[in-house]
Write a structure and sequence with these properties.
CATH architecture of the largest domain: Sandwich
Helix content: 10-25%
Organism: Oryctolagus cuniculus
Oligomer: single chain
Order of helices and strands: HHHHHHEEEEEEEEEEEEEEEEE
GO molecular function, one term: peptidase inhibitor activity
Number of strands: 17
Largest sheet: 5 strands, antiparallel
Protein name: Anosmin 1
Number of helices: 6
GO cellular component, one term: extracellular region
Strand content: 25-35%
GO biological process, one term: neuron differentiation
Length: 342
């Protein structure tokens, strides 16, 4: 996150570019080059900045190099400064080399000299110049078409450097919110505004958001998660399963009938998880269809007692449950010929 801030310091400190958003920087050819190192912090740990930036930006490499240098520094050095060696006590004062870099120390501790060695110690001034956390109360407003506006209020800025707000969210399926069943936190926006529009809020899910204020000095972390939010829109039925096909078709020795295993790809990213599949199949000359229900976690079914060398049609439908409502998706169909007898 620090690399983003140094980009803002370079470019947003100019009144002509003070639009309060990263959108301008992302769309500007020169400014966007310094955002690139922020997207690949793992690569910066294994190669020099010059090797990372120059192949990507032969012309505009200076901004990338400056940002890369900052990101590498932010990754290597934790917030705050080391206390005076004479202030170390207990194990922190031991004449041992228990660490070589901040990354080897737990939590917010830094690798600091103590006069006769290096140990992990609590830093001084860890939050000097670091912006305060935004206020916990997040205001959420949904448009009828689906986008969600998330607003927050910042506290007094303790430094002159630009502040970037990092917005994260997590969500869970179901009729009620659940932190235990929620996804991991994911970053969905970085902005210098105190609001953001999220276009991809899905019905049938409970969302939670949190915000962190970051500048070149660091961050105090994320706010406590806000209240749960669920879209007012009703979830859609799941899409049809894809790539319906016969995996194998074999003749059973006992009665001469055929068993065929049909497989499929589950519907991609439905609003509500698939509860079960309805499978129906029938012979072209028969008047009746046979039916079967398959658990929504499965992606195959075996059809038994088929006539050898006969043409069959199989239909597959995904069904989701939303409270008392059953959401039935469109059917996928497949025509196949059962294996022939000996």
């Amino acid at each position: 996150m620090g690399g983003v801030n140094v980009c803002l310091f370079f470019f947003f400190s100019s009144p002509s570019q003070n639009n309060g958003s990263l959108v301008w920087c992302q769309n500007d050819k020169q400014c966007s080059t310094c955002l690139e190192p922020c997207k690949h912090p793992g690569e910066l740990e294994t190669q020099p900045c010059q090797s990372f930036c120059e192949p990507l930006f032969p012309v505009w490499s200076h901004e990338c190099l400056s940002s890369c240098t900052f990101v590498r520094s932010a990754l290597a050095a934790k917030q705050g400064t080391c206390p005076a060696p004479t202030q170390a006590s207990g194990f922190a004062a031991a004449c041992v080399v228990s660490c070589e870099a901040d990354a080897e120390c737990p939590g917010g501790r830094k690798c600091c000299p103590n006069g006769c060695g290096r140990t992990c110690q609590a830093p001084r001034g860890a939050f000097r110049g670091v912006p305060l956390k935004p206020r916990r109360q997040l205001r959420l407003r949904e448009l009828g078409s689906g986008p969600l506006e998330v607003r927050w209020s910042s506290r007094f800025n303790v430094s002159l450097e630009p502040v970037v707000y990092v917005v994260q969210r997590r969500w869970n399926y179901g009729m009620a919110p659940s932190e235990r069943g929620a996804t991991a936190w994911e970053t969905v926006a970085q902005t210098t505004d105190q609001r953001v529009w999220l276009p991809d809020v899905r019905p049938g899910r409970w969302y939670q958001f949190r915000v962190a204020a970051v500048n070149v000095h660091g961050t105090r972390g994320f706010t406590t998660p806000g209240r749960h939010f669920q879209s007012s829109r009703a979830p859609s039925a799941p899409p049809a399963p894809a790539d319906l096909r016969v995996l194998n078709s074999t003749v059973r020795d006992a009665d001469g009938t055929v068993a065929a295993t049909v497989i499929w790809e589950p519907p991609e990213d439905p609003d509500v998880p698939v509860h079960h599949y309805r499978v129906s199949w029938g012979h072209a000359t028969e008047g009746q269809w046979r039916r079967k229900t398959v658990d929504g976690r499965q992606s195959s079914v075996t059809l038994q007692r088929l006539r050898p060398s006969s043409v069959y049609t199989v239909q597959l439908q995904a069904v989701s449950h939303w409270g008392p409502t059953r959401l039935r998706g469109p059917k996928a169909a497949l025509h196949f010929t059962a294996a022939g007898g000996e």
